[in-house]
Amino acid sequence: MHSSHNGALPDGPDRVADLAIVIVSTNEARWLQACLSTVFEHAGTATLDVVVVENECTDGTRELVESSFPQARVVSSVNRGFGYGNNRGLEQTTARYSLLLNPDTEIVDGTFGELVDLLDARPEVGMAGVRQITADGTLWPTIRRFPSVSRAFGEALFSERWPVHPSWAGERVLDLDAYEREGECDWPVGSFMLARREALLSAGLLDERFFIYCEEPDLCLRIKRAGWQVRHLPQMTIVHHVAKAGVRPRNMAQYAYAYKQYAHKYFSPARRRLFLAAVCLRQLLRAATAGVDRSNAAARRDSAVLALRTLTGRAEPPFGAPPATALEPSLGERAARSGAPATDSSRP
Fold first, then answer.
1. Residues near 291 by Cβ (< 8 Å), separated by ≥ 6?
2. What is the pLDDT of residues 175-190, one digit of tens each?
3. Residue 176: how many CA atoms within 13 Å on its side-chain side?
């Protein structure tokens, strides 16, 4: 199904979009005007089903979307993290492809119609990322390698400052030429993750036990294990207003805790101990050297200390203990268990 009218879905019982775009807003209304405007401007020939998940917002997210973008839908959710919010949005869609998109992004080059056509011609691809730049036009390294013991130690020892960047020493791919060509990768960052519906059905949705961070390598590892490829597609470029909030100790501690969760999910006990030793070493060295970079020195030191306390069990996970299961029962399942009718909070 294709449309040239800003991606709008036609009316009718058989309306199935080419691409569902799920955007989770946790009081991110200030970014949504530019984000949604560029999404619809770059629809190309693809039909879109845009779902904005408002995570207990108090900043007028729902009102902005409903008044300025009536072709989008709004779904209300409790704030239980990145994966939880995106899953609630994905449950509302039936499109052939699904894009998880950050609200602090803008599409600047390429169209979704082109991406859909590319993926239609590559049936082996289950997940894709695109080229991303920061607000000042700097390329942001979004092609990543899976976490490993050697990469954790390399990053602890500041491998990104080494004159060479071997693949075993860090997760981020720093060869800038790699971002100008199409190629396979381990995982793209979560600000733009484009997935084939069949890949999500075979690998599963996001693991909601990760409140934030590490849900991307987790999902992509499961997609690869299900037989799909993950690729970087340079045919689209987006702006991502990355690091807009500065250094936040709570977020940095959650980042470290997510790596602990990932290690417990995928590594043997011996590898897990080595990996977590490397993660702790990284935080120790960051705490010791925080004063070298005078900008945000106190926040950087506080972040490292809180991360260490969290990793060693001396502090609770910053956003609370994770749920017991990777996926909350769906709306229909919850209704069936309670005997209540299944309803949702999205607009018709």
1. 297, 301
2. 999 999 999 999 999 9
3. 4
Which amino acid is it at 322?
P
Residue 23: per-residue pLDDT: 98
List the one residue out of 165, 161, 184, 163 whose CA is nearest residue 174.
165
- Dist CA 122 CA 228 (whole Å): 11
Q: What is the pTM of this model?
A: 0.91
Torsion sign over Cα 304, 306, 310, 314: positive
Q: Exposed/middle/buried for 269, CB within 10 Å: 0-12, 13-18, 19+?
A: exposed
Q: Which two tokens stand for residue 98?
A: 């699904």
Question: Cα 15 to chain center, whole Å?
Answer: 27
pLDDT at 35: 98
Cα(188)–Cα(271) distance, integer angstroms: 24
Are residues 251 and 302 in contact, defined by beta-carbon separation less than 8 angstroms?
A: no
pLDDT per residue over 102-152, tens digit each? 999 999 999 999 999 999 999 999 999 999 999 999 999 999 999 999 999
Mean pLDDT of successive 10-residue stretches along the chain, which has 348 residues: 57 75 97 98 98 96 97 97 97 97 98 98 98 97 98 98 97 98 98 98 98 98 98 98 82 97 98 98 93 77 96 96 90 51 42
